[in-house]
Structures are given as C-alpha cells and as structure tokens.
Design brief:
The protein is mostly helical and 87 residues long. It has four helices and no strands.
Length: 87
C-alpha cells in the first residue's frame, strides 16, 4: 500500500486485526507471529485482505483468492489422533 506517513497507523492496525479474525474464521487457527509455512501463507492472506478492505474492494477478495483460502483451510485441518480408537 506504500503509505509513507503514520496518520493511518491506527486504521491499518484495526483493518489488520479484522483480517486476522476473518482468515482464522475461514481457514482455521494460525500464529500470526509464527514462521511455519502455514503461518506465512495465512499472513499473506491477511495482508491481501487488508489491502482489499483499504481500497474498498473487499467484495472481490474471496473470489480472487479462493484457491489460496481453500488450500490454507485444508492445511490447517487438525489431524485426528488415532490413539483414542477402540481396538
């Protein structure tokens, strides 16, 4: 977004927090401060969603990033623990 002043910092922080919540709701839990591959993919989606919101184009985000959203959601599905199965 190439913003060179700090006047919009609070607005951008608010938009980023909304985007983190939206991506977690759509895809699953991730660590926004983590360095795992899924965390990095989630961060990228957060930044992209925030860019769309900032430019008043949120209605296009999901369609334009559907494959990345779906891929991340599938990656974040928790693995089932087989140790609880009856023998």
């Amino acid at each position: 977004m190439h913003i060179t002043h700090s006047m919009e910092d609070s607005n951008l922080k608010r938009l980023l927090s909304f985007s983190v919540s939206a991506i977690k709701t759509s895809c699953g839990e991730f660590d926004i401060y983590g360095n795992q591959e899924t965390d990095n993919r989630a961060k990228e989606l957060v930044f992209e969603r925030t860019r769309y919101v900032y430019n008043d184009a949120l209605e296009y985000f999901e369609n334009n990033f559907l494959s990345q959203i779906t891929s991340l959601a599938l990656s974040l599905i928790p693995e089932e623990d087989d140790s609880n199965e009856a023998v």
